[in-house]
Amino acid sequence: MDLKAQIDLTRLPRHIAVIMDGNGRWAKQHGKMRIFGHQNGVKAVRETTEAAAELGVEYLTLYAFSTENWGRPASEVNALMTLLVTTIRKELKTLTKNNIRLQAIGDIKNLPEKCYKELLEAIELTKDNTRMTLVLALNYSARWEIMQAVNNIAQAAKDNNIQPGNITETTFEAHLSTADIPDPELLIRTSGETRISNFLLWQIAYCELYFTPIFWPEFRKDNLYEAILNFQQRERRFGKISEQVSE
Ligand code: FPP
Fold this sequence. Notes:
Helices cover 45% and strands 15% of the residues. The protein has a six-stranded parallel β-sheet with strand order 3-4-2-1-5-6, sandwiched between helices. α2 crosses α3 and α4 packs parallel to α5.
């Protein structure tokens, strides 16, 4: 039986997050420049988005550029920014046709202006789409996000809008860039690395982690199905015991 047909559609992860890793190594394997890996990564982005939407996943978050990525050689950073702009522009029609809403998390105001504008425009044009939300993590770092929430809450306390002692998880979550997005239930990282790399640290408290050796440019629909099938075989206990969650 094919992999897709084995998936239990009533137990899909509502939100899948992906650390798209291995573009550079894949390019090197092929004797090419790193940007060739990123360019080929776009095909994997397309396939993953399509497969997730077809299944009925509600949210798909892709880690496209971390705050730490600014430290890469300028030529790679510039090429990545150009690729982001052209990809967003090119894929806008497909997003609209497939009723997919685009959102972004991260310090997006500090992206190059062209990239920021293109992104805002695509977000605005797709805001009423309802089939799936594609969230791009851009200039994102979980510690940046957490510190921003802390500072905003501290300011609100100073202004007497929040009482210290009354700050709850809900208050905190409302100040994260994922405020209206449910926590991911499945996090996939490609390329064999088994790190979180400053991604969604608060939100993955109970997330299932899935690591695959496949380099991102080679990730295809079947690889997503494999990850979901693996997720569906796991027992999610949320701190309880097996008998309690299987009742
Ligand atoms: C990690 O591989 C990948 C990135 C930092 C960039 C991912 C970007 C894309 C796939 C481009 C388009 C994306 C969208 C959403 C429009 P790496 O460079 O760290 O690989 P390495 O670990 O092998 O060096």
